[in-house]
Amino acid sequence: MRLLIINPNTSKGVTERIREAANAAAEPDDHFTTICPSFGPELIVTPQDAELASRAVVETVKAYNAPCDGIVLASFGNTGAEEVRALRPDVPVIGIATAAFAVAGALGGPFGIVTFGQSLVPGLTDKAKEAGVGGQLIGVDALAINDFGDPGTVQCRYRRELGQLCSEMQQRGATSIVMGGGPLAGLAAKIGAHCPVPLIDGTSSAISIIRSATLGTSPQ
Questions:
Q1: Fewest beta carbons less than 10 Å away: which of 8, 127, 168, 202?
Q2: 2-95+205-214: which CATH number, 3.40.50.12500, 3.40.50.80, 3.40.50.150, 3.10.20.340?
């Protein structure tokens, strides 16, 4: 399976976290290309960020000439998804928020979201509602900091604190937890052994969904 995986922000560190998470989900014959745009915001927080990042994602897809079997948009805003689907109707296109919330919905029961920035809480709440799982969401917990620094290293610097938030979310009644935000890609596998409920990674969830969608199809 050949996938184009796009980090819609321009952080090289976040792109590397996403690449690591994607490669960890790869099977022997898979070929994943993980890239970020050449312009746009380092982190997508505001509507203006999202608009610019969407344009950057579209230009990135237009410039990609290699064959692929699917496209993953690795932001929890599903940034540029509609535009990319219009541009590439020949392949499945999925954002990591859509994928993560699909898994949470399939698992059933109440779930929570753990993220790294207070400013991200409203947007993540809205995305859960848009995905149709708002009724299952019991809350969104974020690090109690205002300036989390380099988004590419946030999961390394605050791993213990993020793990603690997961434990607290489970104690509140969550039967699964979505790790919210591209910068947390791959963290679920690193701390999951210390949490008694499933931690859902958007990148690996998106890859699994595309794999299921393309199962049995011939390479293009």
A1: 168
A2: 3.40.50.12500
Answer whether 0.85 is exceeded by the pTM.
Answer: yes
* φ, ψ (nearest 5 deg) of residue 151: -65, -25
Quick one: pLDDT at residue 88?
A: 96
DSSP string, 32-76: EEEE--SSS-SS--SHHHHHHHHHHHHHHHHH--S--SEEEE-ST
Q: Which residues of the chain, if any, have pLDDT below 70?
A: 216-220
Task: Evaluate whether 181 touches 81 at the Cβ level (below 8 Å).
Answer: no
Q: Specify the pLDDT at position 209.
A: 97
The CATH classification number of 98-202 equals: 3.40.50.12500
Binning the chain into helix, strand and coil, the percentages to the nearest 5 are 50, 15, 35
The residue count for the chain: 220
